[in-house]
Structure formats: structure tokens, C-alpha cells
Amino acid sequence: MARGGGAGRVRVKTAKGRTAQSTRWLARQLNDPYVKKAKAEGYRSRAAYKLIELDEKYKLIRQARHVVDLGVAPGGWAQVVKKLSPKAQVVGIDLLPTDPIAEVTLFQMDFMDDKAPQVLCEALGAQPDLVLSDMASNTVGHAQTDHLRTMALVEAAIQFAIENLQKGGAFVSKVFAGGTDQELLVVLKKHFSTVKHAKPPASRKGSSEWYVIAQGFKGRTPQNEVTQGTGGANNVLPG
Asked: Is there a domain that residue 37 lies in?
């Protein structure tokens, strides 16, 4: 690596065996102020600041006592929850391994597994009052396919929230391509008092990710139960 001039920006030389893409990624990481800040403050990823910024605007965490973190690895969001609401019980799940976090229950498991919701709720010991999802599918390089795969995870997260949240609870999820698909937006507006989209400053400008913030869960009644689709697992359809 070489350190160039100009405000101390780090320039990364292409090394043998390193692709141009990986060189660009490394340079971006080394020059990202959020990456540096996360390292200095003990957070496992720069993504922690996305949740911190969302919380500053929407007041999501400090009153939360039972939190489910979907797509928890590497653990930055769970760290934020425990820092801002130390008394909160937090349960997280991810396909990837996550190093232990004090007073956080972690499962290495596919959230799309039919058993996952029960496992999470039993570990939490209560209905969640906040469900967080930073899940995204592994990309295959085809924009439409990648979007559909990630939106399937968003669907599943929405269904989990609607089936398990305490009345008055909140749901936050990563979405792509400028927001939530219209059909899912209809579902959220039906079940929550307010639904908004936000792109926190910590989200890179070049990224297509946004976050949907749904607050004031209305509770479950026969009139607003989630309808199971027949075209695949965990479909959420407007009632």
C-alpha cells in the first residue's frame, strides 16, 4: 500500500493476485471515515452507524426491551442495541457465524427455515417490541435476480414482525432499489401506524440500499392477520 497526499488519503497499489475490484474495495475501506470510527469505538462494522442514525431520527431503541436482530452478523447492530438499551434482551440469527456478544443470544441458522421463528421467540422469552432486519441475499451479479432474492427475505422479515410483535412495536428492514415493493408497503401500512423510508448518512451514496421504518404496530386481529401465500414459503400478501 502507498499513502498518497491530499488529506491523508490512502492509495492502494494493485498487488499480485489481487483483482482490480478487490483493490477498489480495500481502498474504499481504508478511506471510509465510518470504518475508522467503528474500529476506534469498538463496533464490529460500519453498519452500526446506520442503526445509530436511524435511532437518532426515529427513537427506536432506548425504550425497547425485547429485540430480534435478523441478519445479525457480524454483530454491529446488536452491539448498538445493548449500548443504547442495556436492559434489553436481544436475540440474533444469521447464516454466518457471529462472535459472541455479551448478553446477546445468537443462532447460526437460516432465517428461512420454518423452525427459525419459534426458535427466536422461545429464546427471547417474550414477544419482541422491536424487530430489526439487515438481511440481504448473496448477490449473483444479475440486478433483477439479486433484488428479488433480497425482497424475499424482506417479505419473510415482515411476516415474522406482524406475527410476533407486541402491540405498539416497531420494525426496521433494509430494502433496495429506492424502497419497499408496493405490495409489501400496502401490508406495512395496514399493520403499522406510520411507515417511512430513510437512507441514513452512513449508507454509502453509491449503494441502492434504503431502510423502511414501520412504527406503532396495531396488533393482531382476525381482520388484519397476515395471509399466507401459496406460491412459496413466507409470502406476505395484502389482505
From this structure: no
Q: Which residues contact 54 (CB under 8 A, 6 or more apart)?
A: 60, 172, 198, 200, 211, 213
- Respond yes or no: is residue 37 known to be catalytic: no
Does some domain include residue 38? no
Which among 174, 189, 199, 205 is annotated as catalytic?
174
Same domain, 127 and 16: no
**What range defines the domain where residue 207 resides?**
45-237
Please check whether residues 120 and 223 belong to one and the same domain. yes
What is each CA distance from 143 to 87, 153, 176, 187, in whole angstroms?
A: 41, 16, 11, 25
Q: Is the bond into 33 cis (omega within 30 degrees of 0)?
A: no
3-state SS assignment for residue 230: coil
Say yes or no: 184 and 216 in one domain: yes
Structural domains in the chain (count): 2
Q: 3-class SS at 32?
A: coil
Cα–Cα distance for residue pair 49/37, rounded to 1 Å: 9
Q: Supply the CATH number for residue 209's domain.
A: 3.40.50.150
Each residue's pLDDT expressed in tens, for the chain with a length of 239 residues:
333 444 455 454 555 555 655 544 444 555 568 888 989 999 999 999 999 999 999 999 999 999 999 999 999 999 999 999 999 999 999 999 999 999 999 999 999 999 999 999 999 999 999 999 999 877 666 667 667 777 899 999 999 999 999 999 999 999 986 566 888 999 999 999 999 999 999 998 878 889 999 999 999 876 555 443 323 333 332 22
